[in-house]
Amino acid sequence: MIINFRIDYTTMRHEQIKRLVIFIFTCELVGILGSVFNTTAIAVWWYGALSKPWFTPPGWVFGPVWAVLYVLMGVAAYLVWESKKEKKLMPFAKSAFCWQLAFNLCWSIFFFGFRNLGQALADIALLWVSLAITIGLFYRISKKAAWLLVPYLIWVTIALALNFCLLKLN
User: Fold this and answer.
1) Is residue 1 one of the residues assigned to a domain?
2) Would residue 5 count as lying in a domain?
3) Count: domains in the chain
4) What is the pLDDT of residues 74-108, one digit of tens each?
């Protein structure tokens, strides 16, 4: 099955473009708020001093990857919010999306802010579950939106494994 990921901006009304930008900005804002805790922990060398597993990505990868993932989240949310399909599922899809976004933010607080690897692991497990539910609900409303979240799920899966290994190694 081929999914066309293009959004035709030429047919979008000003209000739709504004809503798309708001969705992307909101998701990026979650990343910016979380990065406040990341920067502090990295600045005091806490994260750098941890023993890490072999598959830990280099530090410079995290910022660009998350920036792209937050854009994809914003576009996916926009597509679902604008959809006219599956009206009965819409409240559940919106709620699941908001929950996964909240777990996303809380992970940075638990991991970098509190430096609590166990609490962060529990949070990222909940993030993974809520994200999988979000993708399932989004798929029934907009296949495009669901597929836009798949790279995020892959990244969270890697982060979950990394968090687990960090807890075991430290």
Assistant:
1) no
2) no
3) 1
4) 999 999 999 988 889 999 999 999 999 999 999 99
